[in-house]
Amino acid sequence: MPLLEIRRVTRRFGAFEAVKEVSFGVEAGEFFTLLGPSGCGKTTLLRMIAGFDLPDAGQILLDGKDLAHTPAERRPVHTVFQNFALFPHLTVAKNVAFPLRMAGLADAEIRRRTAEALDMVHLGELAEHYPNEISGGQKQRVALARGLVNRPRLLLLDEPLGALDLKLREEMQMELIKLQREVGITFVFVTHAQNEALALSHRIAVMNAGRVVQLDAPSRIYGFPASRFVADFIGNCNLLEAEVRAVEAGRLRLHVAGLGEIVAPAAADIQSGERGLLALRPEQVRIAAEADPGWANRFPGEVRDFLYVGDVTTYQVLLDNGYTLQALMPNAAPGRARFHETGDRVMVGWPAEAGHYVRD
Predict the structure, then answer these.
(1) Structural domains in the chain?
(2) Which tens digits make up the pLDDT trace of 279-310?
(3) What is the pLDDT of residue 144?
(4) If you ran DSSP here, which 8-state letter would residue 64 be given?
(5) CA count, 13 A, side-chain hemisphere, 320
């Protein structure tokens, strides 16, 4: 039985359905992420799990118990918010201890568990500091310690890294992974940042317009998107409109208007004559002055632009038939290393094993 079970949950605001018959389960000890664009329903769903809002239909069960009549303060759940929600007039230790004081624990037990929680996030030496005396990353760790101090069955994290700068955000991602592994508490994490979800999660539920459109492991979400929306939303992706001409020997022969025939991996239950698209990641596309014999798909074009970001360069290549493809190449040398200049004539290609066919 899952620790947390969402059964056909719906939430309406007037005529608007923010969450539409969503169902999934979260296993004990899992780092589970709700991912989607603003307005997709992920925060509304998190608020219902926390008890800050109630569903209009469906059930939310924790350890098999329906939470419908359990108020937020009595649920074994804690929420960590993006703005940290720390009390400025309380020290770090008193902020962390606050849930224990509200629960009426003895002073000795409060001191012991507060010290344990601060040690868990490596902030014991800052116990007597105030929030305005510590950094953004340290505030986030205080918020996490406060969330963990009363040992909830479930920790809900609502865009908890959104207020941090990029470098600190990446550092905190590593801290979150390590912390979740050490404490073993189930995390339900809400974010709109695809890279963050891919880096942190055991499983991801991608949401759009109030529904879960794909639920899978990060590698499956990225490599095998179930729809146009998922392919386009998760990372960068070349999307080629295609018609299936043949299914043979584990391969698809696809026809792309203006591009011609391409070869792609077979997918389940695909029939000749149907239409869809090939989702092709930029890192799967190769670019060179001359075509490689190993490329099953190859087309001439011209470099129109490129984006250098240190370890990789992404090229925009305009093919002779009018298509524009993105190709990502690693930079082997330091500095402004690049292999091709704007205006260069190149060949673009990819092997038959690259890409994933998606029904439209």
Answers:
(1) 4-230 (3.40.50.300), 236-359 (2.40.50.100)
(2) 999 999 999 888 888 899 999 999 999 998 87
(3) 87
(4) T
(5) 9
**What residue spans of the chain are helical by DSSP H?**
42-50, 92-102, 107-120, 136-148, 166-183, 194-200, 218-223, 228-233
What one-character DSSP code corresponds to residue 296?
A: S
pTM of the full structure: 0.89
Strand, coil or helix: what is 16?
strand
User: What span, in angstroms and rounded, lies between the C-alpha atoms of 7 and 5?
Assistant: 6
Residue among 70, 59, 71 nearest 5 (CA) = 59
Phi, psi torsion values for 190, nearest 5 degrees? -110, 130
Separation CA 192–CA 185 (nearest Å):
22
Question: How far apart are alpha carbons 22 and 147 in whole angstroms?
Answer: 26
CA neighbor of 313 nearest in space, from 332, 335, 328, 334: 328
DSSP 88-112: TTS-HHHHHHHHHHHTT--HHHHHH
Q: How confident is the model at residue 356 (pLDDT cuts 50, 70, 90)?
A: very high
> How far is the C-alpha of 261 from the C-alpha of 244, rounded, in Å?
10
What token pair was written down for 235? 């990372």
Q: Sign of dihedral through CA atoms 223, 224, 230, 236?
A: positive
Question: Tokens standing for 208?
Answer: 């759009």
Lowest mean pLDDT among 80-84, 95-99, 103-107, 108-112: 80-84
